[in-house]
Amino acid sequence: MGDSDAIDLALGALRFRDLSAAELDARLDARGIECAERHEVLETLARAGYVSDERLAHTRAAALAERGCGDALIRVDLEGRGVASELVGRALETLEAERVRAERVAARRGWSPATIRYLAARGFSEEALETFVARGVDGAIG
Q1: This prediction's pTM
Q2: How far is 125 from 70, CA to CA, in rounded Å?
Q3: Where in the chain are the domains?
Q4: What residues contact residue 9 under an 8 Å CB cut-off, 6+ apart?
Q5: pLDDT in tens, 39-75
């Protein structure tokens, strides 16, 4: 397969959403593209701005945070896509504090044990949950 065929395959894979370099590499590998050719295509697309793990990390982290996900779930999602831990960390640093996101979810769902379980399942840290529990108890008492 030629370079232009590999680029066409890669661009087709990127048509609907961003993919990490690792995800795109895996897709090209599955289509039988040799390692050297995959590497060349990925470099070309990165130079052109079509592939950027940093952009993917920031946009995906923001989208997941907006949907009520905690940092742990976001980290697992991004690292599962092959994004480097350093880029994941930088993306997480740009998000609104986990505690604030947890409070927004609680305001929508109500301050209850079920909400605490929901937040834990959505990847919120123990620190965010402890703050939530303290606020909920204060609200119930006051």
Answers
A1: 0.84
A2: 7
A3: 3-47, 53-93, 98-141
A4: 27, 28, 31, 33
A5: 999 999 999 999 999 999 999 999 999 999 999 999 9
